[in-house]
Amino acid sequence: MLAIDVISTIFISAGAFFMITGTVGLLKFPDFYTRMHATGKCDTLGQVLVILGCVIYEGFTFISIKLLLVAAFYLLAGPASTHALMKAAYVTGLPVWKKGDKRM
Amino acid sequence: MIIPFVIIGLVVASTVLACSYRAIVGPGTYNRIVAANVIGTKAIVILVLVGYMIERPQFIDVALMYAAIAFIGTIIIAKYAERGELCSP
């Protein structure tokens, strides 16, 4: 019982670490595209890691199957929404940051 | 085994507060949409963790529905911002 608690705590802490990293990227990067680059990956991985930690803590029940369903749905939905937003911004002509420009 | 869920929930809630800075003052429309998308993701995680904190597994159904609604909302807002209309006649 104790080993399962420790392993699930490690997974949930790793997910929280990735979420903090994505938030720092969202706050400090200079451009819309680089911000999407930070959050699109870190949030997906962080959410899936937190839910995997909850699944390990729960064991094999009906609730853990629903948790895996949430994780699988977001593993598809997160990159799809990131791509849609990025393409919308690129088509409407949002300027791209280059090295030496001001932050925007 | 309640304590790690409470601590991680507080950490994720503080990152939601940090993201709301970009949602409020971020320049332009797209930065605000990104911040709203990120806050939706973190809300799913907070819902799952709250369901474990007060030991009510019904919150996981709420998290599943919230994931679907946040995804559809982001897709619709991206389409509207790209084309300027939702459905062409």
Report on the architecture of this protein.
The complex is a heterodimer of chains A (104) and B (89). By secondary structure, chain A is mainly alpha-helical. Chain A contains 3 helices and no strands. The longest helix of chain A has 30 residues, at 62-91. Chain A is elongated, with a radius of gyration of 17 Å. The termini of chain A are far apart. The mean pLDDT of chain A is 90. Chain B has 89 residues and is mainly alpha-helical. Chain B has one domain (3-83). Helices cover 83% and strands 0% of the residues of chain B. Chain B is flat and about 55 Å long.
What is the total number of structural domains of chain A? Answer: 1
Query: Spans of chain A of 5+ residues with little confidence (pLDDT < 50)?
Result: none
Shape of chain B: flat
Strand content of chain B: under 5%
Number of strands of chain B: 0
Features:
heterodimer, A: 104 residues, mainly alpha, 3 helices, B: 89 residues, flat
State the gist of this model.
The complex is a heterodimer of chains A (104) and B (89). Chain A is mostly helical and 104 residues long. Helices cover 81% and strands 0% of the residues of chain A.
Topology:
The complex is a heterodimer of chains A (104) and B (89).
Chain A: H1 2-28, H2 32-58, H3 62-91
Helix pairs in contact in A: 1-2, 2-3
Chain B: H1 3-25, H2 28-53, H3 59-83
